[in-house]
Amino acid sequence: YPTWKRTLTHQAREAQMKRFCKAQAIQRRLEEIEVMFWELEQQGIKLEKLLWAEDADQKMQWMNQLLYLVQKKNSLMSEESDLMITVQELKLEEQQWQLDQKLQWAMAVTHPAPLQPPALAESLKTPEDCAAEQEILVQLLEVVNKHNVLIHIQEEKRLSKL
């Protein structure tokens, strides 16, 4: 490989590893959130039992604690939603990277001689080669559109928090 191809390959591998590490960190956090949901649920059950059993003076205290648990659960649900969006973004980034690789390969297809001018190389492609390029471009466009939808969802969430 020429140096620039090795550099691009190395950068692509690094980006892929970063996505993988980020996905692992997100998975760990999602598991932590699941445990926290369970703990909050257990605390909520205990508080509800206390609400029905205790006297009127204590009920206000238990009710406040129960509301705090609900707020905490809502906060965790929001974080979980954000993490799921991030997971989708990582999947789309991986898809886009794979499609970029396919497109580079498809665009580099030349049949007889590797050192001809680009116009000649284009004319040497079969209709199947051109159709394959078009299909990859359509898939890339779909990935970009899905990514735009995720960005729009994130922006709506951000604005609703304000």
Structural summary, described in words:
With 162 residues, the chain is mostly helical. Helices cover 89% and strands 0% of the residues. The chain has helices spanning 3-53, 56-107, 118-123, 127-161. The radius of gyration is 26 Å and the shape is elongated. The model has no long low-confidence stretch (mean pLDDT 86).
Structural class: mainly alpha
Give the DSSP E fraction (strand runs of 2 or more residues): under 5%
The number of helical runs is 4
By DSSP, the count of extended strands is 0
> Secondary-structure element sequence?
HHHH
Kindly report how far apart the N and C termini lie: 51 Å
> Total domains, how many?
1
The major sheet is characterized as: none
- Residue windows where pLDDT falls under 50 for at least 5 positions: none
Helix content: over 70%
Average pLDDT, all residues = 86
Rg calculated over all Cα atoms: 26 Å
* Form type: elongated
Brief account:
The chain has 162 residues and is mostly helical. The protein has helices spanning 3-53, 56-107, 118-123, 127-161. The chain has one domain (3-160).
Task: Indicate the topology.
Elements: H1 3-53, H2 56-107, H3 118-123, H4 127-161
Helix pairs in contact: 1-2, 2-4
Keywords for this structure?
mainly alpha, 4 helices, 162 residues
